[in-house]
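Narrative progress, year one. The postdoctoral researcher (J.K.) led the effort to move from monomer predictions toward full complexes, under supervision of the PI. The following entry was the first complex the group processed end to end, covering 1211 residues in total.
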Amino acid sequence: MFVHLQGPWNPVWGRLSLQAIPYHNPILVGTFLFAVVIALAAVGAVLYFRAGPYLWREWLTTVDHKKIGVMYCLLGLVMLFRGFADALMIRTQQAIAVGPHSPGYLGALHGYLTPFHIGQVYTAHGLIMVVFAATPLLVGIMNIIVPLQIGARDMAYPYLNALGFWLTAAAAGLVMLSLFVGNFAHGGWYGFLPYFELPYSPGVGVDYWMWAFQLSAVGTTLGSINLIATIVKMRAPGMTWMRMPIFTWASLSTNLIALTSFPVLMVSLALLGLDRYFGTHFYTAGNGGNLMLYNDLFWVWGHPEVYFLILPAFGMMSEIIPTFSEKTLFGYTTMVVASFAIGGVSWGVWLHHFFTMAAEPSVNSFYSVTTMLVGIPTGVKVFNWIFTMYRGRVRFELPMMWAVLALFLLLVGGMSGMMNAFAANDYMWHNGVFVVAHFHMMVLLIAASIFGAVEYWFPKIFGFKLEQRWGKWFFWFMVLGTAWVFVPMFILGFTGMTRRLDYVPYTQWAPYLRVMLVGMAFYVIALVFFFAHLYVSLRDRVKNRVGADPWGTSRNLEWMTHSPVPAYNFAYIPHVHARDEWAWRKENGVASLANESFEDIHMPRNTGVPVLLGALSFVLCFGLIWRIWWLSAASLALVVLVIIVRSFARNTDEVITAKTVAGVEGAVDDALPSAARG
Amino acid sequence: MSKRGIKGAIKALCAPLLLMLNGCSKSGLYLLEPEGTISRVTHHYFNLDVGIMLLIIIPTALLSVWAMWRYRKGGGGSYRPDWSHSWFIEAVVWGIPLITVGVLSYLSVKAIYKVNPYNPGALAHQEAAAGKPLEVDVIVTDWRWLFIYPGQRIASVNHLVLPVGVPVHFRLTSTSVVNDFIIPQLVGMIDVIPGMRTKQTLEASKTGHYVGFSADYSGAGLSWMNFETQTVTKAKFAQWVKKTQAAPHNMTDAAFNLFAKPYISIDHRPMVFGHVQSGLFDYVVHEVMSGKVWPTPTAMTENMVKYMNKQQANVKAGDY
Amino acid sequence: MSSTTDTRIQPGSTVLWDKGDAAGHDILGTRTFGFWLYMLTDAMVYAAFFAAFGVLAHNAGLNSKSVLAAVFNAQGAYRETIALFASVLAYGYAMVALKKGSRSGVAVGTVVALVLGLVFLGMVSGDMERLFGQGIVPQSNGFLSIVFTLIIYHALHIIVGAIWMLVMLAQMGRDGFTSNVVYRLINLRIFWHFQAVIWVFIFVFVYLQGKVI
């Protein structure tokens, strides 16, 4: 029933053997030691501070949307560092391995990474940055902010929310595990067919890639169901559709994209899995398979996915820019229409990912034009942000600086995007680094929005502001790094240089590749400043303590509760009267959060089931990757059993008594230095 | 902006980088130095596209800088916190992108019909004038290029020789995974797909040497999978054909089965075949469609250097 | 429109906070809405499968006429259709009983639906066994790969539905019609009907169209 494999297999250990441990590779051994040190330090700290029970009670088993969101963000941050380390390796390799006379180290002909190794590095870089860094960070921020912005106490399905997170975490764990047990896919993050079929990728790398991807797709789909249901069903009284904050609108459109596109990704990966495990012929070149089918299915997900990432980023910019322009957003309705227009068009552009597949000119023309259409709503958004600043009072605090950076990156990325959409250009550089530079502009825009959003909403969640001095150093070195890495990369685009080279044959390209390395050095310095930023902020947390509205000019519902937000979000659910409710209340002099009496609040009870299901899914996928059938079967059976048993649970809710609420509310002091100005 | 202006601007931008580091003599910016009919048309539309985009992007960037400066806190700008709507501005912000996209779409479609590999409009009149085009069949293996000249019944590995001023028609297929055929200064990319046949067309305008490579990730040997394209006069081409036809090696279906085994061409060993079995291209397409694979051994990816040493030994022994 | 263009505040008459019943969100509506969203994702999965079917059907000619005839056994599929539709109908009656609040009515309807679902499963697996016995397997070529995948994926849903019914019978027996049990019964209805709808597509686009190929 199962396909024939290259290499040994036995019923107990599957394909797993001691040879799967890459102990002969000094880079991986070093990474492993680093990971061990970090892990020991973490475990040691937990034991030393006796934080185990606290972590389990308050974090691992939590169903609180804010804590889950924070964990999403932490996961995203950790994976961001991993992805950045991969980027460093790619850039150094390409700076060394230029020309036939370049030196080779560590068993590589040129540079210090063999094709097989650097293949894994850039595959991991791509997958991690898209699926395990950007997505968790965005989903995390949506998780935290959306219920607050619509005046809800939690998500529609808090338990499902936790499950989605733990599945994503399990998937990220698989990617990390592939460093030390076996290897990762080595042909690019979006997979090439038939290259990812067994005859050409016989190892477990593709299986790691496939199952990590699949698991995270399940997690994201569950998350999107949750967010849509929350926005549709859980809005506070008085919050009509056209009074919803713009970030909530962005979240709605982006999750509609996720809801409809991620299932297609699951199918595209599942069919590959059937090919690899059962020997079917979906994507094989022969026997009636069709390898272009994979490209179509994958990019039918893949392009909407790009907008899934960018729409929340636009939403964040649309929140930050009005706050720091001390003014309402220009063209609210237009912004909503533009978000949905982008979401809609995203479904009709996927073929531009293979303009060079030898399609008729009419086909390429159609997709070239639809791709350009994306430029219209995006351009509208840019103009609306500019007109939001127009006649405002623009304050350049850190969140605003990041938003402005995102705006300029969008101009560069948008321009290069229009150049790519011009199919005749694309014929010249389709798999080239010009495209790489373009989409890095776009993901850096997303990253800039995320950094801005974190600076902006951090005081709401943790009750103190991040300091500004080191944060500004971090910002400026990110700008420098971006300029020095990606300007040369755009120029390299005109050489026709292609992606994923482990060795660069033409020495004329060397100067650009070395300039990029300078940019990477700036990024490394930026990273140091980032840690300084974080450290100083945490150190001065008492000094930087803030009240409900730390920026003073915020406009939406999330600022209408204390900082940090209590577990129940709002002691009383607010009634909404205007589009920018908080701004409206401040203008009308009713911006007091004080209440005299309180009522019992029903909240969902914490549960360990989601983390258990995440762990079981991890084991399930591990078994499948190494083809340890008994392990997979056992963990699958356990998953089903746990779900059934959980469905019988009766006491899934708990009550926060009025007395407890009164205690919490009484303890907060909203009249702090920069607190709400009535 | 004029064509020369953009080119000049980009070169000016690159120059300091080049000078600063090692003062390369040749820029290597292949896409900006087109030397074939198709690539020149592509470059023309590229310039138009960039020019129009810059017309929009530069004013937008200036506008945003102006708005940020003029309306900074403490600056002298008027402050109207409730101003958030203007039909006129809404019309402009939708109108400008709409018109730009309209114009660019028109140009894009026109350009596609000019340079698409399937009957490119740019070559239409040349095709009529030049008479019979040169046919070249390209078979890509893991990781070598086999160029077959079916009319001349010869073949060459990793080395493509083309006459100047003659339209060349390529048929391309792959034995294993998807590759992408490109000669940046002559013609853009076209996928090379196993079990399928794709087409490409080009016409070189000058004699010279050009680089060509595969632009789609195809495995461990990709980085070494480049080929030299030499364009020569028609007379020189005829000489080359004659010389090659005298070469001793024979490319038959059986020999091809051996040739198609995974091979990383680090040595760039040139090979020519004085005789090629007719219908080899169709034979390969058919074989792959029927399920034939030349699998990559695990050792080749996971321990490439060791594998290559073994491979070199086998080459000496006459395998491959 | 900005915040201030909305009506000015009337002190005293403006409700700023929702005191009293703060929950306000109906559990049933929220739960079933989410389940509809889930069904949409499942519909997208099927859509992708059918798209793959449409692509790979171009290669149906790789199979001999006799193989195609054996796979597209329309009469067998028709019997399966009857079983599945009867099961859905029975579950529909269970839902009628739910409206009346009749616990026994729901139980009987669910049991009948379950038995008929198992009959359907039995017929499908019998069909698969027959084909595998003749050496007609998904590994033969791309077209058969997608045909078997579609049918087996649908059958997996039926298995999930059957387990769900067993669980619901137990929960109903233990708790009666609590809101948890009721929303799950309603969601199961959505799920079960959806499988019948998908089966219509499979019957038409795979079995009947397969006859024509």
